[in-house]
Amino acid sequence: MTADLPPKPAPRPDKVSLWRYMRLFRQDILSAQPARLYRAWMAEFRTPFFRSYLLNQPDLVTEVLKRRPDDFPKSDRIGEGLRPLLGNSVFLTNGETWKRQRRIIDPAFEGGRLRDTYPAMWAAADAAVARLRALRSDTVEIEEETSHAAADVIFRTLFSIPIEHEIAREVFAEFRTYQRSQPILNLAAFVPLPRWMPRFFGRDTRASARVIRRLITRLCDDRQAAIAAGTAPDDLATKIMTTRDPETGDLFDTSEMVDQVAIFFLAGHETSASALAWALYLVARYPDWQERIADEAAALETGDFSEISKLRITRDVFREALRLYPPVPMMVREATCPERFRDRDIAPGAQMVLSPWHLHRHTRLWDDPDAFDPARFGTENGKTCLREAFIPFSAGSRVCTGAGFAMVEGVLLLARILRAFRIEPVGDAPVPVAHLTVRSRDGIRLRLTPR
């Protein structure tokens, strides 16, 4: 086994009381779980209210996410914490509502649209490198910088405005307030709570959500007016707002579009920022890999989309960062009919938990699962696990519609930053915790030296 392992949160004792578990869960989802989940094919969690099951066995994960997604819809309990911000967005809906939303959204991310958005990503990368060069200190808290860069990408590709735009800047600032106060999984999603029990988000979280939605509404209203006037730029927002449902002919109204932009911002900014920060930390910790990326990044000369295919090492490093630190650590589905998995009877209403965090580090699936090894994807074990045990963007019909977008964005920003700087870690190793995404408890500090 590799001795120099990247940081991983210490698990809790195998048996704790429900109330102790609730307290641990509120502090951090990851360290609230027992070590046995890294080797279990399936684990049952019993509450006084009903059952939750964590699934790590690849064929069971495939059954839930790919073969029978309609029988395992997204749990309504996900909305316990996120609905104040996300409303009725595609992230939270199910059934015909979700299918209609995807029919309108998906064309914006298909085919040549990725090529069309690449110049905006390139411009955001230019801005990120310039911003890092202008810092007064060579030591930076890199999560803050990757959040800035990822938000810039979202605003440039969605609305053709940089992060410096007044409304974009306000949304970004307010989201910084929101992100630390609300986990991606409210406790009720994993340990279902009775209706009378208070939910664990406060007035500040709700207030931030209202401000963000009000600002996004201004952007959507302005874009609707530009579309009507024939002056709207050909970006993702225009594409989505002018795409009709092929079955009904309907367009998104402003309220629906605000819901969707809120999840695009959360999924496209918060998750990308998390993945890029961990990727930068990992190559700072293992400098041989950053030099290989810097050499490979020399191919980035013109900003042409075709150049991204040359960044094979960078892609594998970013993919390994997604494996070790998946931005969304857990997903919850709900059984709608009686099931029998691994000799366990599962009743309708049971919560089925899919955990990229545990699946990506499963000791019976991956070789040396806690080690940082981007070369693993060239091995037979790595190729098999990539197909069967790698779900940073979910899988099946509910796979993140922006998965391809995120991979291009992350690889490009990683390559551009390492082409411009040598980086090394500063201070203690970061401790992963789950807030909205997998972040460091106390930030990630790196020293950047211009090349």
Describe this structure in words.
The structure is a single chain. The chain has 451 residues and is α+β, with helices and mostly antiparallel strands. The chain is built from 16 helices and eleven strands. The strands form four sheets. A four-stranded mixed sheet has the order 1-2-7-4. Strands 3-11-8 form a three-stranded antiparallel sheet. A two-stranded antiparallel ribbon has the order 5-6. Strand 5 (339-341) and strand 6 form a beta hairpin. Helix 11 (254-285) packs across helix 13 and helix 12 packs across helix 13 (312-324). The longest helix is centred in the middle third of the chain and has 32 residues, at 254-285. The chain is globular and about 60 Å long.
Descriptive key words:
451 residues, alpha+beta, four-stranded mixed β-sheet, three-stranded antiparallel β-sheet, globular
DSSP summary: helix tally: 16
Order of helices and strands: HEEHHHHEHHHHHHHHEEEEHHHEEEE
| Largest pleated sheet | 4 strands, mixed
Q: What average pLDDT do the residues reach? A: 89
Distance between the termini: 34 Å
Strand content: 5-15%
- Overall form: globular
Gyration radius, in Å: 21 Å
Q: Unreliable runs, pLDDT <50, ≥5 residues? A: 196-200
